[in-house]
């Protein structure tokens, strides 16, 4: 079999004119790349001591191994964890990686409320949202916002509970599309 | 110990959590002395950063006293008071050895683009942050820097992010003597970037935001011109007009994904999360810089998909530089600036909030209530 020309290594110094314009100041990343010379280190492949893997650690498929040190907080769990595991089958280059992670974040918010309730805590959402300071410093706008949300919610409830006939029609319409 | 905990978009609380532990021989545990809420924490708070897990503790800006060290820690001892850079960096990898401590390859398993950051979602490594009474600090031989004798703790805590990020924004902008520098965003980092622009020899510094109280603050603190984009019409046209129709030599984006000012960007970027946040500030930067100019980005954007005018970058021959600040690399110089009085970081702090009231702190900062510029918490 013939050698693939593209894969044959080339000694760049054999190329006419190689490096004649290699003033680092022409490099827009200068002086960042010039700050330290990695190749001067005798052991450039040295890695720090590895942290023992005690928790499930999802990792980017764009690297061969886990980083030597990592955070250990909130390992993937439940439905949100399952979605996150799926997301990490795809590279950082894909919507398929990032969008499921955002979905998992939202799922975990619900899981978090259930978890609170299971452990006998009723989440104080007013306090968690810091509405006390909003009330203190921004009262008029805050009341308007809350009134709007209340009106929209009430309107939606009225709309949803009115007329099963219309809902049935929309369901059929959906089925027809597929 | 008491710690901030994320429960979902715009929902945080202070809770009791287990004490952090040494997980790696280069770890240290610090008792937090000061910690700030940062503008980039708001991306997490609003639920815009993927893989922000419920139960996480935020906080990448903190200083503390070392209370425990791992077996491989040689450069610190218990009792030392340290500035902890927001980047977690090994000091040994390919990128650390270029001084790119914000891009360390040995501190984040979950992504390769960004290094590990304290309390900044699992996309940045899944570390708990410093908005707590105690925090685990990995690679304690590398990042933590002893707070010099006599330095005010309020100055020290701003050296973890705001000062280095503002300074690096000006540095990356390659400012030449007498350049006109425009900074989008008069948050703490934008204000610091505007002030640091003078240190590189700028001839004119303009800052643009939509909150009058922040503009007023910037005028006084950064000695710069300050304009409200809701009053000047199209900010791009305004900048062209005020620079003899050439454009600014340098534009710094200190806004990031939460930018206001463009309905389309707000809907696709901030509400629907279809791109990496609202790209309004990048649009303005690219379109208002002069041909051949430099755009320097330190505003934080989410991952991967973004609708930016890359065609104009080509047509105008721009240089774009952007990065997380490499705090460790910049600290020696910045400590000098603080000690000489060239920079006065603590002048940015407007609010002091007990850790127990963290939910109110986040609401106040995110809703820009009570003329808040920079809140600090004392656990
Ligand atoms: Zn910060
Ligand atoms: Zn490194």
UniProtKB/TrEMBL annotation, chain A:
Q: Which domain of life does the UniProt lineage start with?
A: Bacteria
Renumbered residue ranges of the record's region Disordered: 1-27
* Keyword set includes Transmembrane: yes
Q: Which UniProt keywords apply?
A: Membrane, Transmembrane, Transmembrane helix
List all membrane-crossing ranges. 142-162
| Protein name per UniProt | Uncharacterized protein
Q: Which organism is it from?
A: Hymenobacter chitinivorans DSM 11115
Automatic annotation (TrEMBL), chain B:
Task: Note the Pfam families from the entry.
Answer: ADH_N (PF08240), ADH_zinc_N (PF00107)
Q: Which cofactor does it need?
A: Zn(2+)
Domain Alcohol dehydrogenase-like C-terminal as annotated: residue spans: 188-265
What InterPro entries does its record include? ADH-like_C, ADH-like_N, ADH_Zn_CS, GroES-like_sf, NAD(P)-bd_dom_sf
| Keyword Metal-binding annotated | yes
- Domain Alcohol dehydrogenase-like N-terminal stretches: 25-144
What UniProt keywords are attached to this protein's entry?
A: Metal-binding, Oxidoreductase, Zinc
In alphabetical order, the GO MF annotations are:
oxidoreductase activity; zinc ion binding
Question: Which family is it part of?
Answer: Belongs to the zinc-containing alcohol dehydrogenase family.
In terms of PANTHER family, this protein maps to: DEHYDROGENASE, ZINC-CONTAINING, PUTATIVE (AFU_ORTHOLOGUE AFUA_2G02810)-RELATED, ZINC-TYPE ALCOHOL DEHYDROGENASE-LIKE
Record's protein name: Threonine dehydrogenase-like Zn-dependent dehydrogenase
Source organism (scientific name): Hymenobacter chitinivorans DSM 11115
- What broad taxonomic lineage does this protein's source fall under? Bacteria, Pseudomonadati, Bacteroidota, Cytophagia, Cytophagales
């Amino acid at each position: 079999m013939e050698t693939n020309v593209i894969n044959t290594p080339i000694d760049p110094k054999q190329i006419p004119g190689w490096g004649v314009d290699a003033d680092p100041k022409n490099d827009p990343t200068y002086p960042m790349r010039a700050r330290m010379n990695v190749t001067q280190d005798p052991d450039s492949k040295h890695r720090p001591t590895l942290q023992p893997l005690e928790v499930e650690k999802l990792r980017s498929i764009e690297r061969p191994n886990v980083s030597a040190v990592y955070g250990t907080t909130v390992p993937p769990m439940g439905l949100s964890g399952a979605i996150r595991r799926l997301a990490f089958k795809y590279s950082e280059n894909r919507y398929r990686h990032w969008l499921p992670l955002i979905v998992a974040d939202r799922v975990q918010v619900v899981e978090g409320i259930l978890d609170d309730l299971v452990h006998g805590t009723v989440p104080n959402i007013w306090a968690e949202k810091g509405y006390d300071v909003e009330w203190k410093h921004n009262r008029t706008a805050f009341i308007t916002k809350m009134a709007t949300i209340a009106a929209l919610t009430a309107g939606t409830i009225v709309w949803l509970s009115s007329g099963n006939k219309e809902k049935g029609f929309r369901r059929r319409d959906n089925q027809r599309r597929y | 110990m008491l710690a901030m905990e994320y429960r979902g978009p715009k929902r945080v609380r202070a809770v009791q959590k287990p004490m952090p532990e040494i997980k790696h021989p280069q770890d240290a545990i610090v008792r937090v002395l000061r910690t700030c809420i940062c503008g980039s924490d708001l991306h997490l708070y609003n639920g815009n950063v993927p893989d922000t897990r419920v139960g996480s503790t935020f906080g990448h800006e903190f200083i503390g006293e070392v209370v425990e060290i791992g077996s491989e820690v040689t450069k610190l001892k218990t009792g030392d008071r340290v500035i902890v850079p927001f980047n977690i960096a090994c000091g040994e990898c390919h990128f650390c050895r270029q001084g790119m401590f914000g891009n360390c390859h040995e501190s984040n398993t979950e992504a390769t683009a960004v290094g590990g950051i304290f309390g900044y979602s699992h996309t940045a490594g899944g570390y708990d942050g410093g908005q707590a009474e105690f925090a685990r600090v990995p690679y304690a031989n590398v990042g933590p820097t002893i707070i010099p004798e006599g330095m005010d703790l309020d100055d020290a805590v701003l050296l973890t992010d705001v000062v280095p990020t503002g300074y690096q924004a000006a540095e990356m902008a390659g400012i030449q003597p007498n350049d006109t520098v425009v900074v989008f965003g008069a948050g703490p980092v934008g204000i610091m970037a505007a002030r640091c622009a003078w240190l590189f020899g700028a001839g004119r510094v303009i800052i643009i935001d939509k909150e009058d109280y922040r503009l007023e603050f910037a005028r006084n603190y950064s000695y710069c011109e300050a304009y409200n984009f809701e009053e000047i019409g199209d900010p791009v046209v305004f900048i062209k007009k005020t620079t003899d129709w050439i454009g600014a030599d340098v534009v710094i984006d200190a806004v990031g994904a939460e930018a206001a000012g463009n309905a389309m960007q707000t809907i696709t970027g901030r509400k629907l999360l279809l791109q990496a946040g609202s790209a309004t500030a990048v649009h303005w930067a690219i379109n208002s810089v002069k041909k051949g100019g430099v755009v320097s980005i330190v505003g934080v954007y989410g991952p991967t998909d973004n609708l930016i005018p890359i065609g104009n970058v080509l047509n105008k021959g721009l240089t774009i530089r952007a990065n997380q600040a490499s705090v460790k690399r910049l600290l020696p110089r910045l400590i000098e600036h603080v000690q000489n009085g060239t920079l006065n970081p603590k002048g940015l702090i407007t609010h002091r909030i007990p850790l127990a009231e963290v939910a109110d702190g986040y609401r106040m900062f995110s809703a820009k209530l009570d003329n808040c510029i920079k809140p600090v918490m004392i656990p």
